[in-house]
Amino acid sequence: MVIDTIFKALADPTRLRIARLLSTMELAVGELAQVLGQSQPRVSRHVGILCDAGLAERRREGSWVFLRSTGGAEESSPIVAAVDRLLATAELESADFAKTCEDDRRRLAAIREARESSAESYFAQHAGEWDELRALHSKDEQVEARLIEALGDAPLGTVLDIGTGTGRIAELLADQAEHVVALDKNLEMLRVARARLQHLPTAQVELVQGDFADLPFAAGSIDTVLLHQVLHFSQDPALPIAEAARVIRPGGRIAIVDFAAHDREELRTRHQHARLGFSDRQMRELLRGSGFTAREPIALEGVELTVKIWLGKRRELPSSQTSPSAKEQSA
Fold first, then answer.
1. 240 and 149, same domain (yes or no)
2. Most-buried pick from 32, 88, 98, 282 (CB within 10 A)?
């Protein structure tokens, strides 16, 4: 029985500690081992038991394996959610357990500080490049304000922030969305985003490594998709837009923030841009080709580059039709 497996999984002090830590934030196995003061293989065995019981789940990022609690997830079973609440109550009622959890969280603070330090180091290395590019277009704050305004006419629901980068957009939308998935292909950027988003509940924000041309999500599982300064890295922009269309439910929305067409050829070599912006006609055709009804774009002019916000709504499809796949779009 599932209930037997769950209670057997919790019949160990270390696994109780792991369950409480994971209810606080997503952690790598090595980070858990550091907090618990135990070897990584031993912690991995405990984690395996919790995962088998459905109390935690693994997610791989390169050579790292991250763990998160399943107790706060929308699809969590009532039993698992109840276990999460039970452990929170136990911490309130048991002085010894509360002391153990308090000590663990104090050590966890060192993990948070290490993440932030790593993020700051990454920013310091690349600050010159980013400042050079920012100087060419309108201020980030202006773009973000217009984006939030444009999306404010309907509930966000479940948001997928493709190419989350530093996690800035995911953080801005977290309070307005039911759930935010921050996706990036680059492991270093995901670690930067994790440092930025670690103050938010794990049930509210999820970080995922993935490619915008092959999204690891079921069809029709997302309400709002964002591609913020990401599409110009794609050799074939139809692919990520088609993938976005696949995962967005009918009636859901897409917002693409990128540069209007320009002739700054040096951005190809200095910043690895595959596309020198997009025209309104090109974007309108891309959106319509993937099943979106395009809205009037928003333009924010900068010193030399204009940032555009293109919006689309996923059209309702007859039951006999299916969403175009990325492969079909590229054929």
1. yes
2. 32
Examine residue 128 and state whether it is found in any structural domain, yes or no.
no
178 and 313 both lie in a single domain: yes
Crossing angle for the helix pair 2-9 and 40-52, to the nearest 10 degrees: 160
Tell which residue, 25, 51, 194, has the closest CA to residue 104: 25
The helix (run of H) or strand (run of E) holding residue 225 is strand 222-228
**pTM for this entry:** 0.70
Strand 158-162 to 179-184 pairing: parallel
Do 158 and 300 reside in the same domain of the chain? yes
Asked, for residue 206, whether it belongs to a domain, the answer is yes
The Cα–Cα gap between 302 and 308 comes to 11
Tell me how far apart the alpha carbons of residues 84 and 71 are, in angstroms, rounded to a whole number: 6
Whether the pLDDT of residue 117 is over 80: the answer is no
- Secondary structure letter of residue 220 according to DSSP: T
Residue 1 in this model has a pLDDT that exceeds 80: no
Dihedral pair phi/psi, residue 9, rounded to 5° = -65, -35
pLDDT computed for residue 328 by the predictor = 45
Domain assignment of residue 307, yes or no: yes
DSSP state of 214: B
Strands 306-314 and 248-259, bridge-based pairing: antiparallel
Query: What local confidence, expressed as pLDDT, does residue 329 receive?
Result: 46
Grade residue 320 by pLDDT with cuts at 50, 70 and 90.
Answer: very low
Q: Residue 60 gets which letter from DSSP?
A: E
Query: How far is 116 from 166, CA to CA, in rounded Å?
Result: 12
Burial 276-305 (b: 16+ CB within 10 A, else e): bbbeeeebbebbeebbbebbebbebebeeb
Residue 67 lies in a domain: yes
Q: Which domain holds residue 82?
A: 2-110
